Amino acid sequence: MDYIPEKKLQRSGKKDNRATKTASASDQTPLDDTLAGLQELAPLPRKEQAVSRVRLVNKLNHFHFTNKTIRIHAENPKSSHSIALDAFPCPCFDRYAVGLWHNPDDASHIPDSFRFTHFELITDEQVIHVPADVRAVNRRGICFRLPEKSVQYTSRKTIRRSCLPIDVQLIQNGVIFSAALLDFSVNAFRVALKGGKETAIGWINENTPLNVVMLSEGSPVYSGECRVLKHCDGRQSKQLVLKPCRQLVQRFSPRAHRSRRSILTPSPDIRFEHPVTGSPVALKALDISGSGLSVEDDAENTLLLPGLILPSMTVSFSGSYSFPCRAQVLYCREDSEKGGNSMIRCGIAFLDVAPEDHVKLLSLLHNAENRNVYLCDRIDVDNLWEFLFDTGFIYPRKYVYLRDEAEQIKKTYQALYCRQTGISRHFTWQRRGGIMAHLSMLRFYENTWLIQHLAARTSHHIGAGIEMLRQVSEFAMDSHRLASAKMHYLLCYFRPHMRFQNHFFGKIARHVENPRACSIDRVAYVSFRRRRQLSSLPDPWRLEKPAPRDLDQLEDFYKKASGGIMLEALDLICRNDMSNRQDLASCYREHGLKRERRMYALKKNGHAKAIIMVNISDAALNLSDLTNCVSLFILEQDAVAPEMVYSALSVVSGHYARPRFPVLVYPHEYIRENRIPCDRVYNLWALDMNYSDACFQHYAKLFV
Fold first, then answer.
1. What SS3 state is found at 132?
2. Minimal CA–CA distance to 476: which of 696, 176, 322?
3. Which domain holds residue 316?
4. What does the pLDDT read at residue 525?
5. Nearest-CA neighbor of 696 among 536, 472, 522?
6. Where does residue 523 rank: exposed (0-12), middle (13-18), buried (19+ CB within 10 A)?
7. pLDDT, tens digit (0-9, with 9 covering 90-100), for 494-539
8. Region of 592 on the Ramachandran plot (φ > 0 left; ψ -120 to 50 alpha; else beta)
9. Torsion angle (degrees, nearest 10) of CA 323, 329, 335, 341
10. What percent of the chain is helix, strand and coil (3-state, nearest 5)?
């Protein structure tokens, strides 16, 4: 490029298109709006160190190699007003440095009264201040004569960093302002905004906090309330320096029953690309639980800010095992000083983790807490069958019911216990390879997990069964907030006379005293034998697919009869989106298993008298076949005779290969009042995980 000596420009006083131009005739007049991209000169940091010219040249070449800009400062000698422009350095060899303007239009509008004084090389941790002489300048760039010595400053304050292209929305008093993020630190960040046809920048009140939302490619990476520290106004543009107000983000509702945090050796590492600056971050975890972790960071260099969302964070365990997750920073607080450095402790919550990765993490944490406890560990299925027979869980009458499908049952359990699935979880308490206690969970409804198959060898370890319940409660507390877990409700069937289950599940419901949080409903278990399969019912009865109003009628009936949450747990509420229920069935098919559901309304003259839910699954997916049965809800007990119930069940019996299958009847009084033979009665326990804290808080007391 052809440089115009700065001295010649000053002597001629002429306005050349290649040279800098005057924005105003007076030095005191504010700069034109075209200088909106220019930056105010920030106070120099502290802690000086001399930099030789040789080292400075190497730094300039490194900036050129990495495509970084240097910041060139100009000053009005009369008013001491300062502005700064960015320039890309050219390769440098000896005494001269050349920079090409990042935005030539900004450079062309600098008033003649301003003089270039120095330039800076700014990194995340330090600033090199170069008091260089200007050799030449034009509309393309500027040339400096380098001094023998420059000064490097290291800041003791939080460093302000350059950032990725981040869109910012500022919301104040119902008005949304669009802005761009210019630079970022955890204590304050700077944004530039422009007024539009519908939003004037003058509407912003600098004395009132505003809500800030940062968007990266349309996805939020930060939101929080901020106050204005500084502002620089133009007629059509405005720059704000904003300071976050919150030191704590309440992502979830507070709870007393917290996840158990473990300190592991060696401790895991977290790695992520910062969503605002784009820089790589690697930190050591102090402790970790199934719901999140905490890390320690240098207060001067930290990039973590309460409310910051980390779209892709990786948790790594000594390089042997790692998993990606989506997370959010919840708090940052001063922790300690080590070696004179101020440290902060930051809490990070998992927002979502793939189910198979989360199970591996929880398995590690549960086993670290209790070496005898295993979560979803690959076990010898033959040992499991021996355990179930020895403990009496499979008693003679149950075995007679299961024996004809023994081979199919073995295949089902191979699929459930010999590989990871997204639909099942199992907990075992083991000693020297032998199973002392067992409990499993099954995702059988869209957002509901069924707790089942609790058994223990009490003669060997009296607390093993209790420990299984503790483990499942902690697993549920750590998992239910993850969207991928699909765990809005927990469900459990148990017999009323079973003291162990009634002691725990029953006491929780009685303690909470809120059926919308935790409810128990009694259902009758009837073993139905098909007499002959019917294709239709006599007039005026019909068996049809239920309409929304039929399910609404079921909901109204249940509210009056119970007021609990059984229907929500069984996914029978019409206001839930029931159009896409094939995903769960597909999950079962992926693992070679079956799970289907058919819905019917038993109607007379077009009015629903009963609702029938037909669940079809592999034999012994539940060993009492509670997942392979019919659920019958009688809406009008006086209007439905037992003969019509038998006829309706005969119509739907074609879904089952066996001539005999179980039917769960609600309300159970219908069976007694109509003198229908009943095998047994079950309590159906349901828990809404939104209220799990109150439930498990009492649950923990039962373990003492």
1. coil
2. 696
3. 269-353
4. 97
5. 472
6. buried
7. 999 888 888 888 888 888 889 999 999 999 999 999 878 788 899 9
8. left
9. 80
10. 25, 40, 35
Segment 349-378 mean pLDDT: 93
In a domain, 125, yes or no: yes
CA distance 32 to 640: 85
Assigned token pair, 260: 């158990």
Q: Give yes or no for a contact between 85 and 41, defined as CB atoms under 8 angstroms apart.
A: no
Percent of residues, the chain, with pLDDT higher than 90: 58
- What is d(CA 584, CA 469) in angstroms, rounded to the nearest whole number? 26
Q: What's the confidence (pLDDT) of residue 513?
A: 84
- What digits encode the pLDDT tens for the residues 663-689? 999 999 999 999 999 999 999 999 999
> Residue 507 falls within a domain, yes or no?
no
| DSSP H/E element including 255 | none
Please tell me the total count of domains within the chain: 5
Residues 341 and 393 in one domain: no
| 114 and 135 share one domain | yes
Q: What pLDDT was estimated at residue 252?
A: 66
541-544: strand order across its sheet: 373-375, 424-431, 434-445, 448-456, 489-494, 680-688, 518-529, 660-666, 630-634, 607-617, 595-604, 541-544
Mean pLDDT for the stretch of residues 295-308: 89
CATH number, domain with residue 198 = 2.40.10.220
Specify if 526 maps to a domain. Answer: yes
**Is 642 within 8 Å of 614 (Cβ atoms)?**
no
Q: Would you call 524 helix, strand, or coil by DSSP? A: strand
Q: Which helix (H) or strand (E) holds 367?
A: helix 355-369
* Chain segment 624-646, per-residue pLDDT in tens: 999 999 999 999 999 999 999 99
Q: Give CA separation, 576 vs 446, 581, 688, in Å.
A: 10, 11, 15
Question: Which tops the pLDDT comparison, 76 or 636?
Answer: 636
Query: Same domain for 470 and 546?
Result: no
Q: Are residues 30 and 88 in the same domain?
A: yes
User: Which of 35, 176, 51 lies closest to 109, judged by CA?
Assistant: 35
Q: Are residues 315 and 364 in the same domain?
A: no
CA distance 272 to 314: 6
d(CA 211, CA 163): 20
Question: What is the radius of gyration, based on Cα positions, of the chain?
Answer: 35
Torsion of CA 524, 529, 535, 539, to 10 degrees: -50
Report yes or no: 108 and 139 within 8 Å, Cβ to Cβ.
yes
**Average pLDDT over every residue of 396-404:** 87
For residues 264 and 317, give the distance between their C-alpha atoms in angstroms, rounded to a whole number.
10
Cβ neighbours for 612, distance < 8 A, ≥ 6 positions apart: 543, 599, 600, 601, 602, 630, 631, 632, 633, 648, 649, 652
